[in-house]
Amino acid sequence: MKTINVSLVGVGGQGILLTADLLAKTAAISGMDVKKSEIHGMAQRGGSVISSVRFGTEVHSPIIPEGQSDILVAFDRLEALRWAHFLAKDGKVLLNNIDIVPVTVSSGLQQPVTDFETRLAKAFPDALVVDALAIAEKEIGNARTMNMVIAGALSTLAPFKKSAWLKAMEESFTGRKAKLLEINVKAFELGRAAVPGAEA
User: What residues have CB less than 8 Å from 183, skipping those under 6 apart?
Assistant: First the structure.
């Protein structure tokens, strides 16, 4: 199997690293060689975070070169634009339909993007858009499960069986976290269901 590159981007506190860990664990359970890396940009203050996951028959490096991401998973729309240059020409985009105003803009240090919607539509005309936060809040009653809604949607784009994802979730939510498994599985299932044509 050729190496598949997945870039997960957003800001600190959105659960990006946990989602990346889940993807990597799922790939390993599925018999893939996996490499993962992360970049934290003032994550505690809402700065940019990017996590790279590469899997295949044999993976030599955790670093994804620019223009080589087969899947770009954006936890908010602005970060999608910030990291658009990582997407491969035939790559797929999973876009969480929320906007988080950067600290530099809210503090007045930087002007907001004026043609944002136009640039977004031009960059990602075929993006799979999911209202993950709305689903987490309305269906689960817990905004912190947003990342598992995104993971569920991502599972429809990645080449792994649903059972492998669920096994990875069981391994991730153990010990004191075991009580969180049920609610996160529910969020995952809702994320899958939010993708048109996806199998239950």
Answer: 140, 142, 145
Q: What pTM does this model have?
A: 0.91
CB atoms within 10 A of CB 9: 26
Concatenated DSSP letters for 45-91? GT-EEEEEEEEES----SPPPTT-EEEEEESSHHHHHHTGGGEEEEE
Which domains are delineated in the chain? Answer: 4-193 (3.40.920.10)
For the chain, percent helix, then strand, then coil, each to nearest 5?
Answer: 45, 20, 35
For residue 35, the Cα-to-chain-centroid distance in whole angstroms is 16
Question: CA 120, CA 151: separation in Å to the nearest integer?
Answer: 22
A 10 A CB-CB count for 198 gives: 16
For the chain, how big is the Rg over CA atoms in Å?
16
The answer for 198, left when phi > 0, alpha when psi is -120 to 50, beta otherwise, is beta
What are the tokens at 7?
A: 């870039």
pLDDT tens for each residue of the chain, 200 residues long: 899 999 999 988 889 999 999 999 999 999 999 999 987 655 455 678 899 999 999 999 999 999 999 999 999 999 999 899 999 999 999 999 998 876 555 565 555 667 888 999 999 999 999 999 999 999 999 999 999 999 999 999 999 999 999 999 999 998 878 889 999 999 999 999 999 887 76
